[in-house]
Amino acid sequence: MLISKMAAEGGGKEMNEIKTQFTTREGVYKLLTHSEYSRPNRVPFNSQGSNPVKVSFVNVNDQSGNGDRICFNVGRELYFYIYKGVRKAADLSKPIDKRIYKGTQPTCHDFNHLTATAESVSLLVGFSAGQVQLIDPIKKETSKLFNEERLIDKSRVTCVKWVPGSESLFLVSHASGNMYLYNVEHTCGTTAPHYQLLKQGENYSVHTCKSKSTRNPLLKWTVGEGALNEFAFSPDGKFLACVSQDGFLRVFNFDAVELHGTMKSYFGGLLCVCWSPDGKYIVAGGEDDLVTVWSFLDCRVIARGHGHKSWVSVVAFDHYTTSVEESDPMEFSGSDEDFQDQMIHFGRDRANSTQSRLSKRNSTDSRPVSVTYRFGSVGQDTQLCLWDLTEDILFPHLPLSRTRTHTNVMNATSPPAGATIITNTSSNTTNGNNSGANTPGINSLSTTLPRSNSLPHSAGTTTTANNANKAGSGGGIGSGIMDSAIATGVSKFATLSLHDRKERHHEKDHKRNHSMGHISSKSSDKLNLLTKTKTDPAKTLGTLLCPRMEDVPLLEPLICKKIAHERLTVLIFLEDCLVTACQEGFICTWARPGKVGLLSSQNQASSPSGTVV
Asked: Which pTM was predicted?
């Protein structure tokens, strides 16, 4: 279907209008139609009843300078291509590897970036029937299959990731609500595993595998109620954020196997989660159609974003647009050491900078720099939203005159000088009085909460509250628990018996009819845990776990554009572009401002209108 190319800020508002470019303060992002990846026949995939399309990237350090590789699943098929990005048009006739599975479908995948070379890559693939496969798409080899007989877990794999910094450990979550730690060097055994309790807490427990010889899984986590939809490691690899169908975000100290903090969605399940580049903030999205920003340090919700009209399926930070800028030293009272620690720009060296920043957090009352975090979200409403998280939201107790912000705060008669105002007329606008920010601990300060990005707001009463959450709990104490448990097991805990469990099937007719639904598969591997108790949503609303809408700042997206016909399932930020994908199986490349390659520019110029299937 041919459509007209529209700038982000102009044109009609037809429901089926697909945008092929949009504008932010840094310039125009353009869809490169000739850099679209899909199945070789380019026919839209009939996505009814299939698992979400997912995309993974790896760089193999090819001497030719074209080392980027892309993997994506569409239905029963898995593809592996050279990714040419903004440089050249995609050649779909020559996949490096293609696999078609019978009886099961790929649901997720992840490359090991540590071991990747031009001759070999290690790719983990999770499946709808519960298995996990380790393959090398360059050598076209299949080395191992984990949970082959489904003795460990019979439910769908929802997320699989290599443990950061490890060449052999990986973590797998399932629709059963369980999560397992594997070692590629170990076997899974020929019988169902028996477990013994290692640690338990509020709505979670961790067990080790009880066996004479080391076998997989090394650890079994049971987290929350319902499916564990996604997890993400912190930039330094020390913490793990999990989102579940019960609507909870739970953040764990991964090595110490201890709960750091929790957050509850406004309603419904949480479906996606990501960390800021410095590890200070976590963003989650889900069935409440919101994006929620949670402070790792303060263990509290600091903002919500409303722009989507349906479930939010992916959230991701843009490491390349997120920035920390030096401010006037006279405006701040931070120490020289604090000042130097913060003078970091997230760019090509973001991995190193985020590691150092995560270990050198400043106190909440010393902010010697100007911060702007950029993150994005895509949803089942087929829309892409971009958001800026700025100082007026992060540090609301600072005078606005001392912040450099790209966020429009409407609690004054005019915006601060130098502010860039970006208004989206299609987004819903909410009026209301705000009560004050709840900063945990002794540093609580009374303040009026700002509304961000063009949302009007009137000054309200201010409140303060103390947070009983322990920031940074489980640091050194017990940090060796996992290693010792893996090596020797824990013999003093009794083994809990297994029993069959009826899975609750959660079905919804969504208002926009874009929803696949998140229906749990049957599982007979669930442990009968006395620690699992249901949380009454009515009792959490209005608490630090789930503040009311008027109690936290409400962000409006910088842009909110319909970019596909089917629900969106992928959002990845790369240096030269951002990548999206929809359930029809089309992976789209959007060139950043000024990053359109020569060949792509020529191809774009030869077509009078963008073509989006």
From this structure: 0.72
